[in-house]
Design brief:
heterotrimer; A alpha+beta; B alpha+beta; C alpha+beta; A: alpha+beta; 12% strand; C: alpha+beta; Aldehyde Oxidoreductase, domain 3; Aldehyde Oxidoreductase, domain 4; 18 helices; 25% strand
């Protein structure tokens, strides 16, 4: 379908005049929050970037980010750990699921600075080199991924579900994964994968 | 994520006294804990606050669930997961566990706190109808001392509460329940929906009915309760519900739908055989 | 006879074809190693974000980026060219772009752009034709003697049905990463359904030679028809990359994605059905309308599937100020199926007939009666139709179950595709094809086709896709990919292996025609012991590898499939909540390449269809013209607990296998809405005319039914 006449915006940035500006070049640059001059600024973090260390997948990783930066953005944009995905960006879809102190959380709604001192595990930590974790192998065998964009979040959610309950019922699987969404429709494979991995982990074979 | 559109300041509380001192000094500090609500608000671009007080470090002090003088005391920083796993809640107020189970996915349950759900004062919140139905009290503390507010007086308007800016919710206290409590929620997705209609109540000598998502705040239905307590039949009760509620017409649902469903849920709770 | 024949091996002879083969890129996906466009981080990269129009329709009076440029970290802030009338035609229309050192600063900058608007009259209402000038009436079309059919009908049934605009909601939002490399060389990482040709658009935009643009898309987080375009965000990304000389990432925010990056047209219709007492359909009359945003919604060619029944139809287009439509998996078909099958089911109910019987009795009016007849039997058995089905009038109690069905069709002929198979002297095999993987499993399909042809294990083949320097292959749309790439890869592998056989045959003292490749060996057909292992054979190749080229061959593919779906739902008539109990899909697709990923396509399509039936609608505010649910909390997708039990049955017989490869992405997504809608009607005892079947729509229909 073509848009109505005049809506085709081709080569549209050409000739629009130079908009490029180095922010620092503007005198008197003041952020509105800075202008408020908080009374107890010495006890507050931010708004400027602060340097701190995060315990990610068993390694101390230094980041320098503003307090407004989420754990998800710190992992993806600053540590290049892009397994956790940004999808809904508001605690609905679970694509950003990571484990913090062993519990699954949405990394999109946690500030990176508040994750200091906590144990962060991302999907990248689960496999040992090319040796897939049990749940990951089960995902592959049951084709629990299509486009794969929700998959890392599902894998982490499944892994924590199995750590919590090594022998989940199908109902428990649905409850435990209710915080993750998929658009391609891989749920059937995911259910089979969790139950198969649970059985294998308990030593029951596949 | 719209959260990050504006730079922010963050203070991490070192102790409850430290947090209360900060609030006394700078009442514009917004307390946050699990961030599950505040980030959603921010995503809409409606968040004006720029300075935040992170209460999560106080989990050890304010996250306990215990029994005190026969009253169930839920620390404000208890998460939904804490509530779900608490034998005390299961025994004393099982409908709170039901409400916690109905909230979001496990990722939300691990971070969202009871205090946050109450303080956030969304009319669609899951736990407020429970607290309202069982005549709970909100325990508030400031640098100046502690006070208690009856739950029915706590929610003063749409997303407004009786909490002063220098106060923190430290706990919700629920007295023993006289009767059989119930909790019903109709959302459109099994595992993750802001409740469309939530009804909590108590069946017994003094019937109680509290409803969420139908008015600017969670509300009790006193006329319905009176109708129930004098032993009226189901038709009369349904009519009372219909007269008493003025639903919010928003994206989640429409007014007529909410009125119908509320009447059906009340009917089912008091007269149904399910 | 050729040494290795081009035609597909039979079901009995095939080693890989049609078997369950695990997705070969499964491991990179489950470990988080798969890099999507959204994951591409380049050194010194800028982030681009957009300022969007908050009105349904508005003229832009002025744009002031000065405050945005003062945000620390902002490098570029500029207004975007608008259409000639300087008007934004929907909520979410892009007005300005801001690029910054960090994602946070870019967002803050975009918010600080000040725009003055003159708000103009708009329309976002499309569920009625009573919207004044916003309707374009269509032309009436007629086939057969329609008036006579209605005049002589035993019964005439009237109904009105509809489904709203829904969106694509790809989990990876739309966008690109662009890097200018000096000397006019451009590297682009677009999230695209057409990697082979998208580079030309970037080249054209920046005035470059297409050869100087390298486009790469290894993984794609969903497309569903919404990622064919070269969009405003791609152009802005390219322009800023060129201007600043720095890499730029422009990925849409979720609200932006839901508002503008793809929608499926709504469809509504008043339908009249004429039928005889025995259930024979004798006439249809459709008065339909729908909206695809500001552009045309596309006519609905109804009746669907029952095309031979005499019919009249007229379709009107409602223009709305909403993000423009894009092709949505099986364009038009789910809507046509719903509007037709609902009317047919209502006719069955009015006649007091089991709809399954009525469908069976009318198969002569379809284009593949035998396929449907067979599939109806299989589906009915799998769902227990005979044991479970009861008429609407029999439904009692608060929680009621119901059954419904629908049938569908699709073409699915493969697109033009080129592929190259290379055999190296150390035995390695590469297959290269300029296709992309939307989640279908195209890498696995290529590996299977080549491994089957060369007589090797699937893991022996290395697959290269998602790059515009590879042999060009078509855009992935309309279920054309697997047909195209299986055919091109097969022919390329046949070419390669025949070259290899030609070199080996003299050593085997046989002619090339007498030899075959299978089981990791090249051998003489008549005396299989006389042969050499693959590695040994390849050692003869020498320094220059063997290169086989292939192109789509019509003989290896086909088109035209039928499918049947049946659904069992449970409806709580007090709360109006409809839940899935069981959904059965029976589908043919000719030669199945990989049974495992083929089944996944069908499972996924069913779930996508269930989502559209129970949850999805883009809600617009008629007063402000704004989208009210541009997020994934209120634009709901089904969760794992919402889909019930799913049963997928692929028709894989010698007859189906012998047809050649046919695409599968679209067909199974067509019927769920109709089957579920019919099941809801059967459960409730009244028709719920408007999808999605939310508590509100269900209770509203029940209230109207009770009032009658």
């Amino acid at each position: 379908m073509n848009p109505p006449d005049g809506l085709s915006r081709r080569r549209f940035l050409k000739g629009v005049g130079v908009g490029a500006l180095a922010a620092g070049a503007i005198p008197g640059l003041q952020d509105e929050a800075k202008g408020k001059a908080p009374t107890r600024a010495k006890n507050l973090l931010g708004p400027e970037a602060i340097e701190f260390s995060l315990d990610v997948n068993g390694k101390a990783r230094k980041v320098k980010v503003e307090p407004r930066v989420t754990l998800l953005d710190a992992l993806r944009n600053h540590l290049d750990l892009t397994g956790a995905k940004k999808v809904c960006d508001r605690a609905t879809c679970g694509a950003c699921t990571v484990m913090v102190d062993g519990k699954p959380v949405y990394a999109c709604t946690m500030l990176a600075v508040t994750a200091r001192g906590k144990r962060i595990e991302t999907v990248e930590s689960l496999a040992d080199g090319d040796e897939l974790a049990e749940i990951q192998g089960a995902f592959v065998r049951n084709d629990a991924q299509q486009c794969g964009f929700c998959t890392p979040g599902f894998v982490v959610a499944c892994e924590s579900l199995l750590r919590d309950d090594p022998d989940p019922t199908p109902e428990r699987v649905c409850d435990g994964l209710g915080g993750n969404l998929c658009r391609c429709g891989t749920y059937d494979g995911v259910k089979r994968a969790v139950l198969e991995a649970a059985k294998a982990k308990r030593g029951g074979g596949r | 994520m719209r959260t990050a559109t504006a730079p922010l300041h963050l203070h991490r509380a070192r102790s409850l006294d430290d947090a209360l001192a900060r609030l006394a000094d700078a009442p514009d500090l917004r307390p946050i804990a699990g961030c599950t609500d505040v980030f959603v608000e921010a995503n809409f671009g409606t968040l004006a606050d720029r300075r935040f007080l992170d209460l999560w470090p106080l989990r050890d002090a304010l996250g306990r669930i215990e029994l005190r003088d026969d009253r169930l005391v839920i620390g404000a920083l208890a998460t939904y997961t804490d509530v779900l796993l608490s034998p005390l809640v299961r025994e004393r107020l099982p409908i709170l566990a039901e409400a916690a189970a109905a909230i979001g996915g496990v990722q939300i349950q691990n971070r969202g706190t009871i205090g946050g759900n109450v303080a956030n004062a969304s009319p669609a919140g899951d736990t407020p109808p429970v607290f309202l139905a069982v005549d709970a009290e909100v325990v508030l503390r400031s640098a100046g001392g502690e006070r208690r507010v009856a739950y029915g007086a706590f929610h003063t308007g749409y997303r407004a509460t009786a909490r002063r800016p220098d106060e923190l919710i430290v706990a919700i206290e629920a007295p023993p329940v006289d009767g059989r409590p119930f909790f019903r929620k109709v959302g459109t997705r099994a595992a993750q929906a802001i409740s469309k209609v939530v009804v909590a109540g108590v069946r017994g000598a003094r019937p109680a009915v509290a409803v969420g998502s139908i008015a600017p705040t969670v509300v009790r239905l006193p006329e319905t309760e009176r109708t129930l307590s004098r032993g009226a039949g189901r038709d009369e009760v349904r009519e009372a519900v219909g007269r008493e509620i003025a639903p919010i017409d928003d994206v989640r649902s429409t007014a007529r739908y909410r009125r119908t469903v509320t009447a059906n849920l009340v009917d089912d709770a008091f007269f149904g055989d399910r | 006879m050729r040494d290795v024949e081009k035609s597909w091996p039979s079901l009995a002879d095939a080693r890989h074809l049609g078997k369950r083969i695990d997705r070969i890129d499964g491991p990179v996906k489950v470990t988080g190693r798969a890099k999507y466009t959204f994951d591409v981080n380049r050194p010194n990269m800028l982030w681009a974000k957009f300022t969007l129009c908050p009105h349904g329709k508005a003229k832009v009076l002025s744009v002031d980026v000065s405050e945005a440029t003062r945000v620390p970290g902002v490098v570029v802030a500029k207004e975007l060219p608008l259409p000639g009338d300087a008007t934004c035609h929907w909520h979410g229309f892009e007005v300005a772009v801001v690029a910054a050192e960090t994602e946070e600063a870019a967002r803050e900058g975009a918010r600080r752009v000040k725009v003055e608007y003159e708000v103009l009259p708009h329309n976002v209402v499309d569920d009625t034709t009573d919207v004044g000038d916003w309707v374009d009436e269509g032309r009436s079309r007629e086939q057969g003697e329609v008036d006579e059919a209605f005049a002589s009908a035993d019964v005439t049934v009237e109904g009105e049905y509809g489904c709203p605009i829904i969106t694509h909601c790809c989990l990876e939002s739309h966008g690109s990463v662009v890097e200018a490399k000096g000397d006019a060389k451009l590297e682009v990482w677009p999230s695209t359904q057409r990697i082979s040709s998208i580079g030309n658009d970037f080249a054209n935009e920046l005035g470059l030679d297409p050869k100087d643009v390298h486009a790469d898309c290894q993984h794609l987080g969903g497309g569903f028809g919404s990622k064919f375009g070269f969009d405003v965000w791609d152009k802005a990304c390219a322009a800023i990359a060129e201007e600043t000389g720095r890499p730029v990432k422009a990925m849409l925010e979720r609200d932006h994605e839901i508002m503008v990056a793809g929608s499926r047209p709504s469809a509504y219709a008043k339908v009249k059905v004429a039928a005889r007492k025995d259930g024979t359909l004798t006439g249809f009359d459709f008065e339909s309308w729908g909206s695809g945003g500001p552009s045309r919604s596309g006519a609905l060619r109804m009746p669907y599937v029952f095309t031979e029944v005499p019919h009249r139809r007229v379709h009107s287009n409602v223009r709305t100020n909403t993000g423009p439509n894009r092709a949505w998996r099986a364009p038009g078909h789910p809507q046509m199926a719903w509007l037709t099958m609902a009317a047919v089911e209502d006719a069955a109910a009015a006649l007091g007939l089991d709809p399954l019987e009525l469908f069976r009795r009318n198969l002569a009016a379809t284009d593949r009666p035998d396929v449907y007849a067979e599939e109806l039997d299989v589906a009915a058995g799998l769902i227990g139709w005979k044991e479970k089905w009861e008429p609407r009038s029999a439904k009692k109690g608060v929680v009621r179950r119901g059954l419904g069905l629908s049938i569908h069709t699709w073409g699915g002929r493969g697109h033009d595709s080129n592929a190259r198979t290379t055999i190296h002297s150390d035995g390695r095999v590469d297959v290269e094809c300029g296709t992309q993987d939307l989640g279908v499993g195209t890498r696995t399909v290529l590996a299977i086709c080549v491994a089957e042809t060369l007589g090797l294990p699937v893991e022996a083949v290395r697959v290269h896709i998602g790059d515009n320097r590879l042999p060009p292959s078509g855009a992935s749309g309309g279920s054309t990919t697997v047909g195209g790439i299986s055919s091109s890869s097969r022919t390329s592998a046949v070419d390669a292996v025949n070259q290899l056989i030609a070199r080996v045959a003299p050593d085997l003292e046989a002619s090339a025609e007498e030899c075959a490749a299978a089981g990791g060996r090249i051998f003489v057909r008549s005396d299989p012991a006389r042969g050499v292992a693959w590695a040994e054979a390849c050692a003869l190749i020498g320094q220059d590898p063997i290169v086989g080229n292939g192109r789509t061959d019509p003989e290896l593919m086909n088109s035209g499939v039928g499918g049947v779906q049946m659904s069992e739902v449970e409806v709580d008539v007090e709360t109006g909540v409809a839940t899935m109990v069981k959904h059965v899909a029976v589908q043919d697709c000719g030669t199945i390449v990989d049974l495992e990923t083929a089944e996944s396509q069908v499972y996924g399509a069913c779930i996508m269809g269930i989502t559209s039936a129970l949850f999805e609608e883009r809600v617009m505010d008629p007063v402000t013209g704004r989208c009210l649910n541009p997020d994934m909390e209120f634009y709901r997708l089904a969760g794992i607990g919402d889909v019930g039990e799913l049963v997928v049955h692929m028709m894989q017989t010698d007859a189906h296998h012998g047809r050649g490869v046919i695409g599968l992405g679209e067909p199974p997504v067509i019927s769920p809405l109709a089957a579920i809608g019919n099941a809801v009607a059967n459960a409730c005892g009244v028709r719920v005319p408007r999808a999605p079947f939310t508590p509100r729509n269900v209770l509203s229909a029940l209230a109207k039914g009770a009032a009658r």
